[in-house]
Amino acid sequence: PLVALVLAGGTGTRLYPASRSDRPKQFLPLGGDRSLLAETVARAGFADHVVVSTRPAFADDIADHAPDAEVVVEPAAKDTGPALVYATHRIAELYDDPVVVVLPSDHHVGDGFAEAMARGARVAADTDSLVAFGVEPTRPDDGYGYIEPGADRGDYRDLAAFHEKPDAETAARYVDEGYLWNAGMFAWTPEALFSAARDSPLFPLIDALDDGETDAGFAAVEAVSIDYAVMERAADAAVVPVHFEWDDLGSWDALERIIDGDEDGNVALGDDPVFVDAADNVVATDGASVSLVGVSDLAVVAWDDRVLVVPKEKAQQVREVVSRLKRKE
Ligand code: GDD
Ligand code: MG
Predict the structure, then answer these.
(1) Which ligand 1 atom sits nearest the alpha carbon of residue 8?
(2) What is the CA(292)–ligand 1 centre distance, in A?
(3) Does the Cβ of 53 fall within 6 Å of ligand 1?
(4) Mutate to test the pocket of ligand 1, among 80, 107, 130 (most ligand atoms within 8 A of CB)
(5) Which of 20, 132, 270, 281 is the most exposed place for a label (fewest CB within 10 A)?
(6) Residue 80: nearest ligand to its CA?
(7) Among candidate residues 10, 223, 19, 241, the one with its CA nearest the CA of residue 123
(8) How would you class 97 by CB atoms within 10 Å of its CB: exposed for 0-12, middle for 13-18, buried for 19 or more?
(9) Model confidence, pTM
(10) Mind listing the pLDDT tens digit for each residue in 12-50?
């Protein structure tokens, strides 16, 4: 069967202060009526089964957003590499001959998605390679992975190289050279993932899972994303180019790409702010009345009892706020 594996264990630090450690972004409605996780699960209807992967701290929250999904809770939060190996291992126990399609739960996605996922799953089943999905870049974003496409095989292209989150200058070069953004979605059979993971920093976990030693495996494995651990070193991977509307709601500047602005380019999530002589700002609130006067290109967020102000172009640096606050605690 086709199994959608929804990733919902991240902390979404760049969307502070709406996203907090006990209530990360996948549980928030950002731009829609339902949470990002509920949207993702609804979108996963193309699959025969939906499995949600999360870390222990969020285990009890999943049912509110995905009541019918199978939930797989990794024993320790070690980023997406270990999480995906563990969840795929569990899927192989639960279902016969599964093809897994991985879906992050922090994306805004347009029409044409289901067909593209089905195509990727077919390529994964037919070729037994790791399949990534490639989006045509529209800017040199350093928050994404970049894929160099190789030979054209019809339904897919060979994946010639994968570079996770290059610096801005390198990203700009990749865009010029026709690289694709990694959509963060993948398709694979368990065999394809496990054989790639054996040649990766994830190997201690693979060995341990085979021996039924899950906790020991998680203690031994390093915290690393699937992109660094597996995709950057995958020998024969494929990329399926996709053309649906796609955005990672990773940082506050992303809101202006999914919410329509006023005539001055100001975008608002939540209460209607007052803009006086202000242009191209992003405002997000959960109730506070926010007013901006004479400023432009800012993101201003008022959530709970917290306020954040950042130039949109520096929105990636918000993660630094979260680590400083953590150090103070
Ligand atoms: N179960 C589990 N456990 N899920 C996790 C964990 C974890 O420890 N950490 C993160 N996740 C989930 C997040 O909730 C999200 O749905 C997904 O995994 C991806 O994590 P992000 O932290 O959002 O990754 P990213 O956006 O920085 O980068 C990835 O996605 C980009 C596209 O959106 C990479 O794959 C990039 O290469 C890609 O371009
Ligand atoms: Mg993301």
Answers:
(1) 14
(2) 33
(3) yes
(4) 80
(5) 270
(6) 1
(7) 241
(8) exposed
(9) 0.94
(10) 899 999 999 888 999 998 877 899 999 999 999 999 999
Two tokens, residue 328: 């103070």
User: For residue 250, which atom of ligand 1 is closest to its CA?
Assistant: 26
Q: What is the pLDDT of residue 118?
A: 96
Can you give the three-state secondary structure of 19-43, one letter per residue?
A: CECCECHHHCCCCCCCCHHHHHHHH
Q: Which residue minimizes the CA distance to atom 4 of ligand 1?
A: 9
Which residue's alpha carbon is at the smallest distance from atom 5 of ligand 1?
A: 9
pLDDT at 72: 98
Both structure tokens of 84: 């995906």
Q: Structure tokens of 146?
A: 């970049």
Give residue for tokens 């500047």. 253
CA distance 243 to 178: 15
The side-by-side arrangement of strands in the sheet containing 282-285 is 267-269, 282-285, 298-303, 306-311
C-beta of residue 11 within 8 angstroms of C-beta of residue 74: no
Which residues does the chain have with pLDDT short of 50?
Answer: none
Nearest to 11 by CA among 69, 67, 83, 88: 83
Ligand nearest to the CA of 41: 1
Q: Is 88 in the pocket of ligand 1 (CB under 6 A)?
A: no
ipTM of predicted complex: 0.99
Q: What is the rounded CA–CA span in Å between residue 281 and residue 278?
A: 7
Q: Whose CA is nearest to atom 39 of ligand 1?
A: 144
User: What are 186-204's pLDDT values in tens digits?
Assistant: 999 999 999 999 999 999 9
Half-sphere exposure of 234 (CA within 13 A, CB side): 31
